Amino acid sequence: MVLLLPKDFVFQSNKKMDLKLKVLLIGFFVSFSIFAQNPETKLREHLLMDFGWRFSLGHATDYTKDFGTGTAYFTHFAKAGYGNGAATSAFKDSTWYELDLPHDWAVELPFSSSASHSHGYKTIGWKYPETSVGWYRKRFNIPVSDIGRKISIQFDGVHRNSTVWVNGFYVGHEPSGYASSVYDITDYLNYGAENIVVVRVDASVEEGWYYEGAGIYRHVWLNKTNRLHVAQYGTFITTELNDENAELTVRTKVENQYAQSKNFTIEQTLLDANNQQVASKKLENISLNGNLDNTYFQKIKLEKPTLWSLENPYLYKLKTDIIADGKVVDSYTTNVGIRTVRFDPNLGFFLNGKNVKILGTNIHQDHAGVGTAIPDALQEFRVKKLKEMGSNAIRTSHNPATPELLDACDRLGMLVLDENRLMGINKEHFDLLERFMVRDRNHPSVVIWSVGNEEWAIESNEKGARITKTMQEFAQKLDSSRAFTVAVSGGWENGSGKTTQVMGYNYIVQGNIDEHHKNFPWQSGIGTEESNTIGTRGVYVDDKENGRMAASNRMPENVGTESGWKFYAARPFLSGVFFWTGFDYRGEANPLVWPAVNSQFGIIDLCGFPKDIFYYLKSWWGKEPVMHIMPHWNWKGSEGKNIKVIVYSNAEVVELLLNGKSLGKKPMETNGHLEWDVNYKPGTLVAKGFSKGKLIVSEKIQTTDESAKIELSADRMELNADGEDVAIITVRVNDKKNRLVPTANNEVTFTLNGPGKIIGVGNGDPASHEPEQFFGSEQWRRKAFNGLAQIIVKTTKQTGEITLTASSEGMTSATLKLNSEDTIVRSTIENITK
Ligand code: GAL
Predict the structure, then answer these.
(1) Which residues are within 8 A (CB) of 225 and not within 5 positions of it... i.e. 6 or more apart?
(2) Which of 136, 286, 488, 820 allows an S-S link to 795, with CB 3.0 to 4.6 Å?
């Protein structure tokens, strides 16, 4: 039934499309074109709308620079269809920039010491009205054959305060920068003609206290359905496991947007990962009055299912067909991970009945070069980096995540603590909470909800206790299969901590967890935040004036990654911990201020380059043998002085050798690290790890020569020519013997040829004020930071070889060739460029 493709379904492929597939597709189009003019039989379409937008900055305080929008005698509020200024169809936008989504214009802006500290000193916000409003316009066609269908436009996230018009009609407003909004635009459309969607985004007011970007930074979709259809996010599947068998409860919300009552059947088909049917269920003879919706329950039994687990994140698909008058009129697909989750007050977290310690990090949603406009492939890259460390969980601090991040977690086997943004009990709070949970509740990766974080005004008083309770009670009606938490930073016994189901401890130094556990024996616990060893990648001497901090021994004895992990590891009643943070993020350069612009809390820097502490956690969270030596061994001028060498490893015994001479063997404490004071001599430092008397792992670092060569490598060499895929390219500055020069900061310039474009550069330096984006004929460039930089290359829809060349004065250049290959691209909405 997947094959019921309507004529207007835009199934695009590139030129070299496999012939067999083409023949197959033509076959389908021919067979189904007989239905094509009949909207009653067209199936749902979910069309990506990311391509071909026009963009311009407006103005937050000067209406003349905001295209006069909203200043006409009759405005969009006064009269339907009276959007004026840039909101009209006739407005000339030919001088505006052309761009594809996702887009974050804040990342394009310069830095200033007078800009917002928490938002990374980017010149945006209430002080900068000229750069805080952005306008987006996109033209698209709707065929006559769509008359009769329901058509909606879906924004997965716009930061922030977005107003949307279609053909000059005001269709809605969403203040939150983290909510997904869907607007019904059926009645405003021009059928068989051109349409225009216009979005005004106002990022003047901050929503969080960390970099948030600005613009349409997540996907936009156009949804077309029959008037009788499954509601958007309208399925909800929960699992019960009985021995080796599963029973799925499927809730389907059906909307009948016809005026008349409709009779229909709901047919559920469960497909395995190879698209083979493994179960099905029909609910027949349903009658639903016109302009009503209703939710229907079905149970599906499955013998010996393959469970979704961290080791094998197996996904089934549930196809929900609505059949009326003998024809499928709507088909909705939901990914299904069959698994159970449970938090136990004394024993911690259980996945499929198995005790799993949650080994997590908090993440915000920005990355080097691109800001919050993270392409899907980059989401996957980031999740993989965390998994590489042995981490099995992320907390989406402090807001609903991008859906594609959750998809990546579903696919890769990563647990998610999914967090709500606003805490409160009024209509707006509940509406946001409901939309967030209904959108995310089918993700198997989501194992717990958080209704809030560190609400200082309420977290330690009775109001916090009440608000938490009321929110949880509301939220439980939306999902009773998962538990709820609140991340609390103080007054654990008196506020939210009294009523939350799972106590979220923000930092062990803020109270006595053992005492709390004793006083609240019914309550499970989790470390929602714990201190990481703050520091800059590759920096070993504090340089606070220049915005950088040594990466070692930053925190007092009892606060830091090692003490934090030892604390959580020793307490089985605690289900796990989320370190603050997985990656560095822009803003909150605490405890530093300008010129530092980015946080240094990350275990990994803003580009995804691991800091030393990554290897501490990898030693105790991961499964492979680890050996890591810090610092580097380039200390010209320090000859004869003692240098503290730290070794992270999970070997039982470690031996350190300098220039072939043993500096002694030391036993490794579980969850610990080792230290040597080494009298510095240039040369080679080797660490050998032994377990059960055998050498199992070793690591060597060397004093290098000067920078001599650039080396380029990509996370993937074969890319999809879909205009969305990205390669994340590491730029290394090596010496003549190909060893990374750990202090190199040479500026590198980049040239790209072939069907791709550079979309951002970075280097992980938390105090860099260099541009991350270049426009027009500007030369892309970036300094290396401690030997490394990163460049992100996006494909176009053309296949071919993408060649990236990196050069730097006095060094041998490097060239990298990537293949952008034929692929079936997602269905997109036709683009009209004027
Ligand atoms: C926590 C807060 C985080 C971040 C962190 C910085 O209190 O929840 O969002 O601000 O402090 O130390």
Answers:
(1) 44, 45, 149, 150, 151, 330
(2) 820
